[in-house]
Amino acid sequence: MPLHVREDVEAARRRDPAARGFVEIALLYPGLHAIWAHRVNHWLWLRGARFAARAGSQISRWMTGIEIHPGATIGRRFFIDHGMGVVIGETAEIGDDVMLYHQVTLGGRSLSHGKRHPTIGDGVAVGAGAKVLGPVTIGAHSTVGANAVVTRDAPPRSVLLGVPAKIRPYTPDDDRKALLLQAPDFQI
């Protein structure tokens, strides 16, 4: 676990220009606290301690404003910037080196059992307020723009913008940070 703590803090430092140092990040970043709590809750969930896992996730939600179901699978170096209002559903799968901004929902669209939440590939960035809904797959190294609503699969290295999200490949001129701040009516 200490290896993951160092990796997580380093991932936050690399992705947040306001980050000042290890101690500040470790003590004051609620996105990291939510991830660390999730690791414990997920461990409990996988061992059949479902009530304890759900109770732990609710305590974490209360303390951080970030709701991560203990059944969700999350990769390494995951970072939630600001975090307030983030919701990650039970069957969501998140790859390595993924970044979410505040108010992101990785949610479901049905009441059926089984896979009903998104799969997010390695290296994906999801902008503020974006909603990725249903058992869709977002390919590795894609960018979901701010306030986009995604309900379809996207191949690797895609840009997803608008409501409903339109999908296109990256171009050499794309500025990933600017895409994460796009208004939902951006035309592609």
Could you walk me through the main structural features you see in this protein, from its secondary elements to its overall organization?
This protein is of the alpha/beta class and 188 residues long. 30% of the residues lie in helices and 19% in strands. The protein has 5 helices and 15 strands. The strands form 3 sheets. A 6-stranded mixed sheet has the order 3-6-9-12-14-15. A 5-stranded parallel sheet has the order 1-4-7-10-13. The chain has a 4-stranded parallel sheet with strand order 2-5-8-11, with no helix packed on it. Residues 183-188 have low confidence and may be disordered.
Q: Tell me the fraction of residues in β-strands, as a range.
A: 15-25%
Shape: globular
Query: What value does the Rg take, in angstroms?
Result: 16 Å
User: What distance separates the N and C termini?
Assistant: 43 Å
Order of helices and strands: HHHHEEEEEEEEEEEEEEEH
What structural class do you assign from the helix and strand content?
A: alpha/beta
Enumerate the strands of the largest sheet in spatial order, edge to edge or round the barrel. 3-6-9-12-14-15
- Uncertain residue segments: 183-188
Q: How would a textbook summarize the main sheet? A: 6 strands, mixed
In DSSP terms (H or I, runs of 4 or more residues), the helix count works out at 5
Give the number of DSSP strands: 15
Look at the structure and give the mean pLDDT.
Answer: 91
Helix content: 25-40%
Topology readout:
Elements: H1 2-15, H2 22-28, H3 30-46, H4 50-64, E1 67-68, E2 73-74, E3 79-80, E4 87-88, E5 93-94, E6 99-100, E7 105-107, E8 119-120, E9 125-126, E10 131-133, E11 137-138, E12 143-144, E13 149-150, E14 158-161, E15 166-169, H5 176-179
Parallel strand pairs: 1-4, 2-5, 3-6, 4-7, 5-8, 6-9, 7-10, 8-11, 9-12, 10-13, 12-14
Antiparallel strand pairs: 14-15
Helix pairs in contact: 3-4
